[in-house]
Fold:
Amino acid sequence: MSDMTPTSAERAAKLEGMGCKRKRVEDIRFTQGKGNYVDDIKLPGMLYGDFTRSPHAHARVKKIDTTKASALPGVVSVITAETLKTVNLAWMPTLAGDVQMVLADGKVLFQNQEVAFVIAEDRYTAADAAELVEVEYEALPCNVDPLKAMAKDAPVIREDIKDKKEGAHGPRKHYNHIFNWQAGNKAAADAAFAKADVTIKEMIVYPRVHPCPLETCQCVASFDKVKGELTLYGTFQAPHVIRTVGSLISKIPEHKIHVIAPDIGGGFGNKVGAYPGYICSIVASIVTGRPVKWTEDRIENLSTTAFARDFHMETEIACTRDGKILGLRCNTIADHGAFDACANATKWPAGLFSIISGSYDIPAAHVSVDGVYTNKAPGGVAYRCSFRVTEAAYAIERAMDIMAQKLGMDPADFRMKNLIRREQFPYTSAFGWVYDSGDYQTALQKAMQAVSYKKLRAEQAQRQEAFKRGETRELMGIGVVFFTEIVGAGPSRNCDILGIAMFDSAEIRIHPTGSGICRLGTKSQGQGHETTYAQIIATELGLPADNITVEEGNTDTAPYGLGTYGSRSTPVSGAATAMACRKIKAKAQMIAAYMLEVHDDDLEWDVDRFRVKGNPERFKTMTELAWAAYHEVPPGMEPGLEAVDYYDPPNFTFPFGAYVCVVDVEVDTGMIKVRRFYALDDCGTRINPMIIEGQIHGGLTEAFGIAMGQEIHYDDDGNVTTASLMDYFLPTAVETPHWETDWTTTPSPHHPIGAKGVGESPNVGGVPCFSNAVNDAFKFLGSTHIQMPHDNWRTWMAADKLGLHQ
Structure:
């Protein structure tokens, strides 16, 4: 080999494959304002739709008069539930097995519910006309408290099913009851509590919050009457699911529906399901014969589209005197709003909440979740988490701190004592989940060393003494969490949506010149898919990442997939990408053997080429093999170099992390200053460290927002009091703390490239870490649990209840 011949390492570096801090290729267009979002789409003759919405949380609709609205110049049509009934579209199925009104049918069940849909020549006329629709209401008693939903005298929310004894997930025990779901072994858990030395019980509430993506939900529907075909552009995290659901609802054959999700400005679970705006736009386009655009505003987004959380979790832990956990119990009331529109896998009405045992070796555990109806907007999506995993992590991590406090143990020491040990993996939890891999003790030790944990505790002790002496009015809190997430939905034996298994897909086609295109069933909303999928292909096939185009979001060209949410893109579609590459590589190896006149087994792979074993000077690069695939294939082999893979994962993946947060709390103002936040994540094989860091920064910022101020709040009359960004806390660069990131690497043994996923992890671990830090500040004064969100007012109130303002 000559001195000028690049080494394997040099050739690998040029590929910019896995492990490379490759810059996001998407940003070239985004930073220049060249993104193509739904609201950028303008079609000839396009009309605009807007909703008339209910000011009441619960009322009968006595009369709807559209005369004045219809008379406004520029108004084309006004649609009500009566219009939709003529095409059997007044109600639509939800992903959770329930049905939901598209437009108010006899009643409204939450404030700002859709009552009428106005179609006009421009958006401003549509908005003006929506206010001219006259609706006569008869107000009804409402309930927004899930803990009162099953009271004897509770208002009946769903009159359409009030006498139904059976729901989509089993028996119903009250007219406002949706389901009861249980997991674990109740008898074993009860026995553990009976023999325990120490127990704790706490009602831990994860309040209703909202994903609040920068871009709201929107669509453009265009029905071609000549072809009988519907084209639907929209902010869809799962375009193929929308196509299938759209076909089932509209009865339009699926091959005549074309769903296109262009660039999306954030999703976070908010854009998984189907909304009335989609259905009404489709109907309006069919009725008018023209394209119809619907774009919601911020108030509509916050008050009507899918919320997250609203879990009320009575959590118990049983322990020995020396701090070994014996058992866990959790009884939860889940507020689903007026309709059960949760985006969960069919078999899991409470999602993957049974990951609540977290990172700990808990021998006996049981959970029970009751879903209930209230006069709130429907939803229950996984806001930057896998299905209900954030709720589970918050419950166990707060409970661990409360138990450590009762035992008089340091929270980190208590966790270390109960973490699953490295030699126990693969570990089967008390709920039956098989954790794939982990090295928890190493990660927690690394985190504690990085922040000088013992020094922090010593400083805190000094600050507490100074506070008692009246020398300071600031408290110091240290939050510690160790979380494990369950992501990568999912294995078909566990997961489906509407009967469709939650596999995912990749189709790769290599062109004669050695460049290629990869089409996938996922859909990026800012995760950097165009960058990272190309890096997987670069490493697997030895072709430069810059030579690979990645395409998503068009159901006409992409293979069928279940979309992007719950950190499933890398664990599922990333695996499909690697497997499709390996099919291509196997064919390329046969072509190389034919060209080099050796047996397939006489070749070995070296970064970007197949070379003859023992004679590395004889080789064929993948670029050469791509050209040969179109003109020099072995006899009997079909030309071309492409493959498709549908990947059904054998198991979920289980990323984990150790986080530490340090806060200073001013008791006289309630102001909280985040002094330090350290986040160590283990997401298995790291594809692009820079994108991982960006994902963690984003997830931690959202966690900060949730823990420190976010809440979709309702007053007793069902009015939403936080329906704009004046009242709903969205952190800016001003409030956001500095993030320190770190990692360990424990590859998943069952994933083709060992990756686990990371996009959701910082939200899952970040929220309880902030909350633990705030609670830790008040702990020495006798406080046990202060509920989120920890805004200035609530923190001041917590200090006041402890008598700190006397």
Q: What stands out?
A: DSSP finds 19 helices and 34 strands in the chain.
